[in-house]
Design goal:
Blueprint lengths: L29 E8 L4 H21 L3 E8 L4 H10 L5 E5 L3 H7 L7 H7 L22 E5 L2 E6 H6 L9 H11 L18 H12 L5 E2 L2 E2 L4 H15 L13 H9 L5 E6 L3 H7 L2 H7 E4 L24 E6 L6 H14 L2 H4 L2 H5 L17 H11 L10 H21 L4 H21 L1
Parallel strand pairs: 1-2, 1-3
Antiparallel strand pairs: 3-10, 4-10, 5-8, 5-9, 6-7
Length: 446
């Protein structure tokens, strides 16, 4: 089966579906099939099902003549998108992660949103940063965001106080200094914990470090890992284990869940570039006392190691745009269904719906008015809100997903070498060069 990236050339023609103004909608009754990303936890999945039942009934009542049917999928969206594009069949609307948007745009199989359509969705009501990952540079967007998952620095307030450190670091130089002070390797306690064995973590943290330093992972013609602005930040990250020893060698195999568990157990004082979704693990597995008294949440540092200010072309972003988007599949959607989808998107991104998301799914709303919800007025939620507002978009090019699939495991092997005592700095340079070549080949085929 062809992958999402491989179907980039399919359906390159425009959708051919005209926007229909609300008053001109002539269909007596429209059924809208929406496929949302399902929750993996049985308990949360049950809450999600009840939530979807509640809001679909409300939507149908508010929109006579439209019936919305919501179903879910679990796991990666790639198999679903591959099948839809290849068979020209599937739901009218699909929810998927922001990083999929540039790739699905290249398939030509999803309806681009015109300015008139976005006005109907009420896009101006959404947090501006959340709308920066809606398509590919130079083209009309194909996605509308429906939730956000920003990233932050988790730190142990009790460990910081014991070490005489007043607060979380604002620069990566301060991060290193604090982490060295907090490390007691003989007691198996480290200044930080990372997750090199995770599918996504290496991409997240190295992209953010490089972006802050003015580096780009990928351009229109391929990957840029070997460029100085990127390579020096990747080296800094690897050196946390190889040179500075502020993270444990056992971290090399850690997933993000493992890293959070080690942080909760007091084996590390900081967990940088942790996701909002990690809060579920804190609430589910940590003691109430730990969450209330010891768990600190701060913005990730934004000044590169060795610098006192943001360098030229650097982006002082504490996070990157991450979350979920909804796209309209052109092959199964009539003009009336496209119009119904716009009404659905306006409804789903409205404040009354959005303000329920944090409680249910630990995701951040993307409607600005939803932030007024009373239970979001806490330091933790406010920190994530600021992180989202200051987030930078990841590259809006079709090869981004392919890059992530190559880079994360390649860098994981470097950490394996470090943990086993076999690491040579030249290995990292070789990894960067090899990753560049693999991505260049893929991008050239798109």
């Amino acid at each position: 089966m062809r992958t999402v990236a491989a179907v980039a050339t399919i359906g390159a023609a425009s959708s051919g579906l005209a926007y229909v103004a609300p008053a001109a909608m002539a269909a007596p009754h429209v059924t809208l099939n929406v496929k949302m990303e399902g929750q993996s936890s049985p308990a949360v999945a049950k809450k999600q099902a009840a939530f979807f039942k509640q809001i679909s009934a409300k939507f149908d009542k508010q929109n006579p003549g439209i019936t919305v049917n919501i179903s879910t999928y679990t796991g990666s969206a790639s198999p679903l998108i591959n099948t839809m594009v290849a068979s020209h069949s599937g739901p009218n609307v699909v929810e998927l992660g922001t990083t999929f948007i540039p790739t699905v745009t290249s398939t030509g199989a999803f309806v681009p949103y015109t300015k008139k359509m976005l006005k109907e969705v009420n896009i101006s009501a959404l947090v501006p940063a959340a709308t920066r990952m809606d398509g590919v540079t130079g083209k009309e967007p194909v996605g509308v965001p429906d939730s956000a998952q920003p990233f932050a620095l988790f730190y142990n307030k009790a460990m910081f106080a014991k070490a005489g450190i007043a607060g979380p670091p604002k620069t990566w130089s301060q991060f290193l200094t604090d982490a060295e002070k907090l490390t007691n390797a003989s007691a198996s306690v480290y200044g930080a914990v990372i997750a090199p064995g995770d599918t996504y973590y290496n991409n997240h943290i190295t992209w953010l470090l490089a972006e802050q330093n003015g580096g780009q992972f990928i351009g229109p013609h391929g990957a840029l890992f070997a460029r100085k602005a990127v390579a020096q930040e990747v080296q800094f990250y690897v050196d946390w284990m190889a040179k500075y020893h502020i993270v444990s060698p056992t971290d090399s195999q850690y997933t993000e869940s493992d890293a959070v568990a080690a942080f909760i157990d007091g084996k590390a004082a900081m967990f940088p570039v942790g996701g909002l979704y990690d809060m579920a693990q804190f609430y589910d597995t940590a003691s109430a006392s730990f969450v209330k008294n010891d768990l600190g949440v701060a913005l990730n540092p934004v000044i590169p190691y060795g610098d006192s200010t943001t360098p030229p072309r650097g982006m002082p972003a504490p996070s990157f745009v991450s979350g979920q988007e909804q796209v309209i599949f052109k092959y199964t959607s009539s003009a009336a269904q496209v119009q119904a989808a716009l009404r659905w998107l306006r409804f789903y991104t409205s404040a009354p719906v959005q303000e329920q998301l944090p409680k249910l799914f630990r995701t951040l709303p993307i409607n600005k008015n939803a932030y007024a919800a009373r239970y979001l007025q806490t330091p933790v939620w406010k920190t994530f809100e600021i992180a989202e507002e200051k987030s930078a978009p990841t590259p809006l090019v079709a090869g981004w997903l392919d890059l992530a699939a190559v880079w994360a495991p390649a860098l994981a092997k470097v950490f394996d070498s470090v943990s086993l005592g076999h690491y040579n700095p030249s290995e990292l340079a070789t990894t960067e060069s090899s990753s560049d070549q693999q991505i260049d080949t893929t991008v050239a085929s798109l």
